[in-house]
Amino acid sequence: MPASSGMLNSALAGTSLNNATMNIVTNKIKNSSEMKKEVNKCVSNNKNKNYFVCEDYVNGSTGFVSDKDLHGAVQHANYIIQGIKNDSTNAIDLNVIVYDIYDFDKWRWSFKWLDWANNFGLHIKH
């Protein structure tokens, strides 16, 4: 699982993501059914506007569960979708920003493997 192992290694080492891991995670998010659903919902709800912004910034409420590797790497993330209608073509140009703080922020109380990995990272961080 290249995305989740790359994210975990970077987080534990306290380093930035390398380009290979960044590209893997980016492509997995772009191709995920969850992100496609959010983009389609945003465009559909704003199809009559020339400019729109949709945001999800409530503690990572967009969960990635369809791809186990992506789920291990990101689990939940926030996003900003910006759309600008091109008047000459009637197409919508989209800018999508997905962000997540990979910081082992709290202890998780389940016996799921990812929660154990989170707790291990939290323990090492402190």
Secondary-structure topology with pairs:
Elements (H helix, E strand, L loop, with lengths): L1 H12 L5 H13 L1 H13 L5 E6 L5 E2 L4 H6 L2 E10 L6 E8 L13 H13 L1
Antiparallel strand pairs: 1-3, 2-3, 3-4
What do you see in this structure?
It is a single chain. This protein is of the alpha+beta class. It has one domain. Helix content is 45%, strand content 21%. It is built from 5 helices and 4 strands; from the N terminus they run αααββαββα. The protein has helices at residues 2-13, 19-31, 33-45, 68-73, 113-125; strands at residues 51-56, 62-63, 76-85, 92-99. Strands 1, 2, 3 and 4 form a 4-stranded antiparallel sheet that branches. Helix 1 (2-13) crosses helix 2 (19-31). The two termini are 26 Å apart.
- Based on CA atoms alone, the radius of gyration comes out at 17 Å
Tell me the number of helical segments per DSSP (H or I, 4 or more residues long): 5
User: Which residue ranges are poorly predicted, with pLDDT under 50 across at least 5 consecutive positions?
Assistant: none
Number of strands: 4
Strand content: 15-25%
The domain count comes to 1
Largest sheet: 4 strands, antiparallel
Helix % is: 40-55%
Shape: elongated
Structural class of the secondary structure composition?
alpha+beta
> Averaging pLDDT over every residue, what do you get?
84
Instruction: Sketch the topology as an H/E string, one letter per element.
Output: HHHEEHEEH
